[in-house]
Amino acid sequence: MKHEIFGIGFDHDVLKASDLFDTIRDSDDEVILASKETYHHKEDDGSLDFDYKYVMHAENLYEMTGEAVDENKWGIELKLVPMPKSLLTNELSDTAELHDEDEDDVELIDLVDDGKCVQMGFETVDVSDGYDKVMPAKFDEGASVVETINAMRGFYLDRPWNRIGSTGWDILNNYVGNGKDFISAAFDRLK
């Protein structure tokens, strides 16, 4: 059986998302799963050293847009999300203040809600056959490619994601590295 998600195709059996991910939000229009494993990234020069998890974030596109073209469509993203303890002090305090909580109480879901993460993949899924029939299989496929994406994360982080050329590295440096604003980092490369 051929599978494909986030631009990666494979023939092997799919893994079970429930074995590799915990559900951290499940509502009618949004599902968020976080990897059970916490990963670690460290640059040889020590400039970027942080812990992170992968998150699969699925949302009902029709509920977001109200556009007829999005009826029976869900979007599923794979995100690399730094752990709260890895955030720079100012970023952690900003998140804590935004959620009206102590810094020690900031959780991964807060960072997802705030967008303090990097999109590693996105897929639009047609659920005309029913959410329960389609989406669990997509989550399993997503879980099956996480290790491949993680092994190639440098490639994914190199990609610009906006028209000024901000990359995943810029986002990570903004939140867990040198603190330089990701917009300024992109503009500096254009000089």
Tell me about this structure.
This protein is α+β, with helices and mostly antiparallel strands and 191 residues long. Helix content is 37%, strand content 28%. The protein is built from 8 helices and 8 strands. Strands 3, 4, 5, 6, 7 and 8 form a 6-stranded antiparallel sheet that branches. Helix 7 packs across helix 8 (182-190). The mean pLDDT is 93.
Concise summary:
With 191 residues, this protein is of the alpha+beta class. It is built from 8 helices and 8 strands; from the N terminus they run ββαββββαβααβαααα.
Annotate the secondary structure layout:
Blueprint: E1 3-5, E2 8-10, H1 17-20, E3 21-26, E4 30-35, E5 39-42, E6 49-60, H2 61-65, E7 73-82, H3 89-98, H4 108-114, E8 118-126, H5 131-151, H6 153-158, H7 168-176, H8 182-190
Antiparallel strand pairs: 1-2, 3-4, 4-6, 5-6, 6-7, 7-8
Helix pairs in contact: 7-8
The level of helicity is: 25-40%
Number of helices: 8
Q: Strand share of the residues?
A: 25-35%
**N-to-C SSE series?**
EEHEEEEHEHHEHHHH
User: What is the rounded Rg?
Assistant: 17 Å
* Chain oligomer state: single chain
Largest sheet: number of strands, sense, barrel closure = 6 strands, antiparallel
Mean pLDDT: 93
Tally of DSSP β-strands: 8
Give the overall shape, derived from the CA principal axes. Answer: globular
As residue ranges, the low-confidence spans are: none
Distance between the first and last residues' Cα: 49 Å
Class by alpha and beta content: alpha+beta
